[in-house]
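dumping this here before i forget
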Amino acid sequence: MTIYWSATNGINSSGNTRSSPDRINPVADVKRGNKWIVVTSVNYPTEDVKRLSSFEEWNLVVVADTKTPVDWELETVHFLSVDYQKHLRLGLNQFDYEDTVSGVRYQVKNSSEIIQRLFNPYRFYGVDQMWPRGFPLEYIEKHTNGKENQVLCYKMKRSSVQQGLVHHDPDVDAVYRLLNADSNSGLDVKFNKFAPPIALSVGTYSPWNSQNTLFHKSAFHTLFLPTTVSFRTTDIWRSFISQKILHLSGLTVSFVPTNAIQFRNAHDYLKDFKDEKQVYEDSGKIIEFLNGWNCSKVINLEDCINELLEDLVENNLWGEADSKLMKLFLNDLKSMGFKYPDLIGEKYEDPYFASDNETDRNVNCRRMNLEFELVDPKKYDQENIRKAEQKINNFGDLVDWCNETGYSNLSKSFPSAKQLSEKHEESFVLQQDKNSVLIAVNNFPWKYGVGLIQRLYQPYFAAVIFCGSWYSDEVVDVDNYTSTLNPINYIHMNPAEIHKGYFAYHCVTLVKEMRLNNVNGYFLMADDTIFNIWQRIDHSRVHHLMGPVSDYGYNWWNLEYGLRAAKNIVLTIKNNTDPKIENAWKQFDEGLKTYGYMKENHTAFDEIASGKGKSVSDFYYIPTSQSEYYAVLMRVFYENLFFLELAVNKFVKSVDHQVYCGSILQTWSDIIFGGSQNFTVKADDDPDRTVD
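structure:
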């Protein structure tokens, strides 16, 4: 692990507290000599520590223990407090450690074309015309990652190798640097902060480097770095060979969102270009070779690997010395007790393909698409203006569409993009919205109206995701004013799952399982609902228009989706062995007591099967702080066929929530583009804030 320091000239002590912001920063300048001493200490600076710190060309790092005095300080020493260590470890949380995870998967179709088997992580994470070092140059112009290659899985095996992206100066080849990097400061790249982790299916290839990469034990046999290729080639070759070996056992690689910042030393890009000659010439060749290679000795993985190592030599993709060295490495690994994974065999069927069963309610992997608008790194400073232009253009389309119907009362006199950008930057509400996800739900297959919803909402949110039965060939574009826009994001729920909207609440669970990053919360909105995005809500709490109404809701409680489903939920919980479900039910029980929705001497079982309560739920909001609880509890409700208005009613009773129903009949042009101004610029914690 490489740690990049932000040096300061000392700190001002603000008391002996580990929560002090000053204890989060390293406290010394880096000395001229690139030499480091690292020690731990539970005492105030000792004479030995003071002596070590006096060496002119040596940097001293003192790593604190929980017993180390919190006000420990010594000039010229880099002191890593407990808080600072926790801060450093935050990046590691992006990696997956559990054996089974939910999330997004890039699923290639059975294609002999190499371009169809490539994945460009930089494009997925929102950067335009950029590729990682090792991506075959011959495919860059026509490669897009595709629109039908993603699946969302509730449960899938954790990837054996995980590459974390880095902000600022990520790994690209010398061609890209020569065209785009500043000769002094290098690159300044910011990947989309909302994009989730993504796993690559067996048969998919993408280059990755040797930095910020986690190898689980199941991938230790792929750690070897070739020695007969150039320094700028070795980790790229390792990545391709590793992927092939992992694929032989049904194991995979994934990319995780940015968890580090890279600052590179200034160096000669032309020299890099020369050192990368083999990368440019042979990346496509080695991928084609590996993709088409099959083991002739179908005995065990070890024999297959040995055969592959020799075939790489025969095809001039590395030297014979690497074949011998890797065999020695594998022998050493085996002598330490490493056990090879099993071979999957030629008849292997990927268990994570999207289900094509349109009547199954227990789908594990489903079709989906998630894209973010591609941004040119050279134009980051223009992003707010570009968004404002998008808002104006979208609304202009809607005005033209209305005018076609003879309705002509909407003004087309808009502010400039700069004026609109400045005004929206002042709005606390709109700033909160752009860090939230809007989920648009349809009770029946999506056909018409997708483009309308995109134009109304897409520029204002981190992502707009359509949920319901999605068949791309059935989505109708009638005219230029309401046609679908790119990117278009969706999650497919088959007709049996969504069932006329009875289980629309499951959409929030599915979006949560995508594992988007840095999201404030999730709005669920029915397709026939108008969301006044300028209206004020408390983004830290669950928001529901009606709240938990004490209505018996006879029509639903008397059906199989009511009392019968509730009784099945009780049986499910009583027979449960999953600790996540156990914790969610405990939170449900405690929440009902805390917020006064459970009678004395009653339990959560009594409340769930009470046959009482329903809440019309065409619109509600779940903050990220409650999203894990929501996803676990509501999946139990979904699996037991609990109806939307009953399920949401029970959930809302168990959490701190806000009930608010504002005016619907306000014209967007009045609110968003001038005139009436009923959204505030104050923050949620301002004492005089109001909700209009």
